[in-house]
């Protein structure tokens, strides 16, 4: 076990306190005696502090990176928890299989995808990643091992999906992949200038397009609350897709200050919105699903202070007003970013007790860390989200207050009874309190 500082989260918030790390290489290994509290760690793509454990030990799962079995008839893959989604795509897309749900980067582990119950552009069709997990094995700090599925240890199954790595260590999992004809995607892009226009496009695309998502210009929302580009697409059959371009070199070091000043972001957003583009296109799946993966270490663009990613979900009956208000507040604060994403979730019941994705509309921003002004804006966005009955995404959060978390995740008291007592994270320390512990005892 070593003490080191290389374990950070993706948005590079202030460095955590000293934390140890131990890497598991075999599924029959046990957690080391002492050194706790522990926290499972995948590939460090959580944005805030949910993957950090100051004063404790991270259980690094990248040593568990093997495929175990694959059923070519049903598409059910069993693999270790440290396998990256990119490993799955690289191995199985040539054989006509794809991930049932994928987030905006393929550089996350299977264990991380389960622990955060990640979602993708097809939530309105497929739900979240947890909806496609058939089974997994959970290692607890007392040495016990649980096989979990909707029928075996079902409570542990519900607590662990979206459970932020706090119920123990996921050793392996079974995931149901989906059939595709090839790597090509048929994609359509449309401009919109109002929140209501975006919502209408989402409704009109619901049945005909598996994948939908929108980019918005958060610095110049326009008179209707949000101008942007709406993308919708399907896997394409019978089309040839050119291979994605080679990865860009990326930043070799982190600059001392952000390379994304407000003026540059404003020009970038205007250019993206107005740039002539073909309405219909056939493309390889990588630039459609993972545009930022082409730029390694893009998080370094924000400089040494890093950035905050903010993502919330608003119930559908409140979405028009609340989303418009959030975008307006961001524009007035001139804190908007080049990456601002809007998406409508479907109506499937979340599979995990702490799952973020739920029926409603979700909105995400990247904000450079400008200190007090940025934190004040984020608190304001929390209040708008809370008043609308929404929730903030823990995997993206680094500063949400306990009250906001408790109101967005009412099952946390039930969850607390299933958290491994020897597991902890900086996020959980921050958003729970003595009241939470008492609530768990009374639940």
Structure explained in plain terms:
- The protein has helices at residues 85-92, 110-115, 123-126, 154-160, 195-205, 262-274, 285-289, 316-333, 372-387, 402-408, 412-416, 426-431, 434-442, and strands spanning 2-4, 19-23, 38-41, 57-60, 67-70, 76-80, 97-98, 133-139, 145-148, 169-176, 178-179, 184-194, 211-216, 225-235, 280-284, 307-314, 340-345, 360-368, 391-392.
- Strands 15-12-14-13-17-18-16-19 form an eight-stranded antiparallel β-sheet. The protein has a five-stranded antiparallel β-sheet with strand order 5-6-10-8-9. Strands 1-2-4-3 form a four-stranded mixed β-sheet, with no helix packed on it.
- It has 443 residues and is of the alpha+beta class.
- The chain is globular.
**Structural class, from secondary structure content?**
alpha+beta
- Overall spatial form: globular
| Number of distinct helices | 13
Query: What's the gyration radius in Å?
Result: 21 Å
Question: What descriptive keywords fit this protein?
Answer:
alpha+beta; 8-stranded antiparallel β-sheet; 5-stranded antiparallel β-sheet; 19 strands; 24% strand; globular
Furnish the topology, listing elements before pairings.
Elements: E1 2-4, E2 19-23, E3 38-41, E4 57-60, E5 67-70, E6 76-80, H1 85-92, E7 97-98, H2 110-115, H3 123-126, E8 133-139, E9 145-148, H4 154-160, E10 169-176, E11 178-179, E12 184-194, H5 195-205, E13 211-216, E14 225-235, H6 262-274, E15 280-284, H7 285-289, E16 307-314, H8 316-333, E17 340-345, E18 360-368, H9 372-387, E19 391-392, H10 402-408, H11 412-416, H12 426-431, H13 434-442
Parallel strand pairs: 2-4, 3-4
Antiparallel strand pairs: 1-2, 5-6, 6-10, 7-11, 8-9, 8-10, 12-14, 12-15, 13-14, 13-17, 16-18, 16-19, 17-18
Helix pairs in contact: 8-9
């Amino acid at each position: 076990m070593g003490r080191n500082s290389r374990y950070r989260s993706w948005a590079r918030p202030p460095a955590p306190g000293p934390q140890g790390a131990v890497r598991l290489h075999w599924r029959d290994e046990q957690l080391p005696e002492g050194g706790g509290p522990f926290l499972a760690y995948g590939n460090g793509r959580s944005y805030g502090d949910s993957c950090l454990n100051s004063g404790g030990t991270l259980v690094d799962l990248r040593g568990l990176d093997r495929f175990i079995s694959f059923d070519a008839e049903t598409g059910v893959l069993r693999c270790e928890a440290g396998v990256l989604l990119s490993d799955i795509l690289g191995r199985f897309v040539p054989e006509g299989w794809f991930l049932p749900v994928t987030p905006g980067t393929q550089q996350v582990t299977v264990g991380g995808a389960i622990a955060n119950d990640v979602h993708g552009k097809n939530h309105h069709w497929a739900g979240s990643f947890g909806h496609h997990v058939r089974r997994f094995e959970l290692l607890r700090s007392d040495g016990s091992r649980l096989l979990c599925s909707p029928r075996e240890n079902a409570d542990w199954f519900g607590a662990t999906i979206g459970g932020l790595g706090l119920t123990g260590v996921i050793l392996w999992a079974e995931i149901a992949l989906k059939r595709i004809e090839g790597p090509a995607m048929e994609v359509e892009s449309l401009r919109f200038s109002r929140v209501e226009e975006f919502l209408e496009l989402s409704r009109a695309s619901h049945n005909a397009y598996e994948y939908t998502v929108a980019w918005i210009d958060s610095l110049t929302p326009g008179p209707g609350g949000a101008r942007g580009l709406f993308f919708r697409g399907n896997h394409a059959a019978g089309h040839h897709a050119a291979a994605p371009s080679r990865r860009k070199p990326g930043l070799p070091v982190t600059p001392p200050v952000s390379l994304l000043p407000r003026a540059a972001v404003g020009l970038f957003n205007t250019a993206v919105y107005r740039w002539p583009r073909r309405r219909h296109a056939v493309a390889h799946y990588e630039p459609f699903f993972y545009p930022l993966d082409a730029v390694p270490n893009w998080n370094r663009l924000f400089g040494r202070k890093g950035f905050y990613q903010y993502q919330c979900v608003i119930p559908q009956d409140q979405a028009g007003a609340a989303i418009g208000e959030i975008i307006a507040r961001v524009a007035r604060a001139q804190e908007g970013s080049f990456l601002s994403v809007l998406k409508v979730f479907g109506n499937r019941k979340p599979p995990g007790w702490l799952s973020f994705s739920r029926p409603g509309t979700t909105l995400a921003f990247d904000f450079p860390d400008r200190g007090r002004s940025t934190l004040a804006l984020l608190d304001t966005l929390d209040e708008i989200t809370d008043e609308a009955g929404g929730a903030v995404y823990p995997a993206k959060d680094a500063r949400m207050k306990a009250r906001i978390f408790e109101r967005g995740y009412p099952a946390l008291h039930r969850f607390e009874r299933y958290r491994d007592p020897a597991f902890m994270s900086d996020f959980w320390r921050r958003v729970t309190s003595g009241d939470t512990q008492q609530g768990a005892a009374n639940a």
